[in-house]
Write a structure and sequence with these properties.
The protein is an all-beta fold. It has one domain: Sandwich (Immunoglobulin-like). The strands form 2 sheets. Strands 1-8-7-3-4 form a 5-stranded mixed β-sheet, with no helix packed on it. Strands 2-6-5 form a 3-stranded antiparallel β-sheet, with no helix packed on it. A hairpin with a 5-residue loop joins strand 3 and strand 4.
């Protein structure tokens, strides 16, 4: 699963596709509204990865289906070279720095107590 930010800037994703092609079509489908957007992207190969950089128009807190098709233009199921899920968030996530996504970030307040009780 890819985690992308809610921004209007270009974002980069690294994928390992079935076939390495520098001209690809990204189909991003919103799971909530079932609407799709096709993006024509030129990728670059970097080691074993295909690096794709584009502007994703995503809404905060939603899941998306990502399909990458070989070639630009008309797409068919036989041309799929990569599939994945996308989650859009404004939270910074970096597992190497121990920053993980939290549904309750800045909302949940922990109450502290000593759990003493009185039996009468």
């Amino acid at each position: 699963m890819k985690v992308l930010l809610h921004t209007t800037d270009a974002q980069t994703i690294n994928i390992i596709p079935r076939v390495y092609s520098t001209s690809v079509t990204l189909r991003v489908r919103d799971d909530s509204s079932n609407t799709s957007v096709d993006l024509l992207v030129t990728g670059t190969k970097s080691g074993n990865y295909l690096v794709l950089s584009t502007v994703f128009v995503l809404k905060e807190g939603r899941f998306y289906d990502l399909k990458v098709y070989n070639g630009q233009g008309a797409v068919a199921e036989k041309d799929i070279i990569y599939r994945d899920k996308i989650f859009c968030t404004d939270q910074s996530t970096n597992q190497s720095n121990n920053e993980h996504y939290s549904v309750n970030k800045n909302e949940y307040v922990e109450k502290r107590g000593n759990n003493d009780f009185i039996i009468l």
